[in-house]
Amino acid sequence: MNSRLIALSLASLVAFTACDYEWKDEPPTVANPNAERQEGGSAPQQVTKQEPEKPKSDARPVLPAGTAYAGSSKIPEKAKRIEILNLVATNDATISSNTQGNDLENVFDGADDSLLRSPEINPVDVTVDFKTPKKIRAIRVRSTYSDFAVAVQIDNGERLILDPVPDGDWALMVWPQGVTAKRLFVQTLRRSRDNFVHLNEIEVLE
């Protein structure tokens, strides 16, 4: 009788020892990457943290500071257009822009239905350098597809800003007595929606 109980006890002990009992305290759970150390004392897993995407700014471009210009509605009497492209053709003037495009001539061709469309550059800078100083009485700028703002600077003089100008209207700045210019700088800002400036025309009047 005793020998039979001893045999049963030994068989139970062998079966218990042979059992692959891995989890001693708790049942298996999904590995937690934030745990300091995994079961069995192994080193913690290295988890690569992804940087959150930075939200895009909704801020619109603005013109650098200058003196606000009230605007004019009337071109000076007897003022006439300076043909900038003719001066360029005779090497009496050069034109340049921050857009580096081939459409810059459209801005001075006298047809306000042609235009320079910037490659998402806003504002658009246009510079006219005269070989011989010119007397300027007025400047008109037209831009479309958005309301816009214009800054004009002659040589190193005062920077004048006309803002805002309705979509498709002409921004007009007038110097009643005229001003002598060796360099003319015109900056046009698109004020709404995207940053593709549609600059139709810059007209310089003497």
How would you explain this protein's 3D organization?
There is one protein chain. The chain has 206 residues and is mainly β. Helices cover 11% and strands 35% of the residues. The protein has helices at 2-18, 84-89; strands spanning 67-68, 93-97, 116-117, 124-144, 148-154, 159-165, 170-190, 198-205. A hairpin with a 4-residue loop joins strand 5 (148-154) and strand 6. The chain is globular. The termini are far apart.
Total number of β-strand segments? 8
CATH class of the domain at 67-205: Mainly Beta
- In terms of DSSP E residues, the strand content is 35-45%
> How large is the radius of gyration?
38 Å
The overall pLDDT, averaged over residues, is 83
Shape: globular
Largest sheet: 8 strands, mixed
**Ranges with pLDDT <50 over ≥5 residues?**
5-27, 35-39
Remind me, CATH topology of the domain at 67-205?
A: Jelly Rolls
CATH superfamily of the domain at 67-205: Galactose-binding domain-like
Structural class: mainly beta
